[in-house]
Amino acid sequence: MILPIPNEYEEIIRYIYMIIYPIIFIIGIIGNLLSSLIFSITDLSQTSCGIYFLLLAIYDSIGLLGGLHHCLILGYHISIPNATYCRARNFLAYTSIDMVSWMIVAISVDRYVKVKFPIHARIYCTKKLTVIIACILTTILILKNIHLATVFIGDFTDNAADNCDPNPDYPTYVKFFENVWPWIDLTTFVLLPFIIVTSCNIFIIKYQYKRHLKFGLRNLDRSIIRFLLISSISLIICNFPVSITIVIYPYISKNNAKNDHNDKVVFVFNLLRLPAYASLAFNFYLYYYSSSIFRQQAVLLFKRLFRIQIKYFTEAGQCQVHNRPDYLSLASNNNDENSNRLTVSTFANNLATILGLSPDQTEKSEQPMFYSTRPLEIPSSTWLFHIEGLDRLSNTGISLDDNGEFDIDSIHSKLSQTGNADALSMGSVIISSKSDLNNFEQALKDQLSRIDQQATVNYIVIVCDDCKDDNAAQQIQNQLKTKIDKIISNDPQTLAMTLITKESARVRRARQVETASANITIAEMYSDEYPVMFNLFFWTSLVLALIVISIAYVFLTLDPGADTIIYRMTTPRLKVD
């Protein structure tokens, strides 16, 4: 919708959209491109929210492309009298901007679930479910905005302020578009998303505050508080004013058709549209300001893009044996360039062998970690503490090369085949903030108390989403050592180990389908996430290609005589009342 602007305000709006909007557009496209790269190729792509942030960057860019229409009309006085262009532009612009709001909602709900239900979050906050939710939201918003792509859109009369306004041949729809549609759009675009996002953020902040009071800590985690407040405040400040102006404008125009007060409202409306577009452009920079993890991944991306030479680590992490039965002895391992270095799969196969299970098939011979004087005997109890997201805990562990991820499902599947599925007991601790790190000892104690006492294999996974502090590794190591020493004192013949990996392991429940058999040939670079990545890039590329084709078609079918700027060289005839 373009509202007519009186002459005294026309020059101000013209220069604003002629100069400021192109700057917002360029900054936004660059930021959204970098954001999409960060959530596609860095470690952040492994999180469940990664797809939401990737789609958010894509829809931000589409929304900025739709804003070029206002830049041309208000800034350069260039109109495109083409019905196909108007319907495609209105539909894509409204749908993409709606999707931006609901992607923020999805991110907030995902964060709420991880805080409120940290254990169940590893089951429900998955990439597959994320894609399903994104598809459902897209379908609903397409149905909501589909009328914008029909014959109801397109005003090509002589006195039309914007050719992309409702078609005056359908007066009932014009009335709906001016009086009812703004309320629907206000509710779905601003009010409902703001209520959900703010409710989730209030709960998270309240939950963090209660935890600090419970454990006697004084300071809240300011980084997450800052991120939550920015997401809520920017959503309401940038989008609510222009939406409410669209709602109230029809009532003002009826009562003050030629009033100066109405002229000011029109001027303010066109002015308030800029913050809404700015919210589409500056998400990348808000993330960079409010999230330390995002800053680190952004710096790493910049180094890759500008080919800055950085040290390449082939190590996936390390493992450390804290205690072992008498009949087990550690194999010597120099980890030099000429030796057969240990890998993550080697560790998994060695663990399976110790538990009396068959190891997975490998192309190369693997170096053993243990030698046993009693090959048929298995430990009375085995404890494995798996720390994800760190390079190492100490300098005394055994380095592991990166050839895959450790998957406890393989051990569980093999135990199930032998009828010992109940022998495995699992627990998890998630460290997503500094407060979680400070309260790690208590959280670990709670998980250990829930471990099945009848289980012989105990697996505790510790997910370090926010362990970038230099003291984090030392703090986790000290608190783990206390618990491990207690376990060893209760059972001196237990096998107690820690495994540290950079990548996130997938912990699935017993009901999940077993993995494919080992004789299936799969490429070395294959990933289970490739179908998701393919669909995202394919459909995004298809939409952008259709946009480019539509723009090219519009310009090829333009009537030069109808254009008032580029082709008309004669003096226009003054309109006579």
Detailed description of the structure:
This protein has helices at 7-41, 49-75, 83-116, 118-124, 127-145, 171-179, 181-214, 222-255, 260-281, 283-290, 292-305, 344-354, 408-417, 434-438, 440-450, 472-490, 530-556, and strands spanning 315-323, 328-330, 370-372, 382-388, 398-401, 424-431, 457-464, 495-501. With 577 residues, the protein is of the alpha/beta class. The protein has 2 domains: 7-305 and 532-562, Rhopdopsin 7-helix transmembrane proteins, CATH 1.20.1070; 315-501, no CATH class. Helices cover 56% and strands 8% of the residues. The strands form 2 sheets. The protein has a 6-stranded mixed beta sheet with strand order 5-1-8-4-7-6, sandwiched between helices. Residues 307-314, 334-339, 504-526 and 562-577 have low confidence and may be disordered.
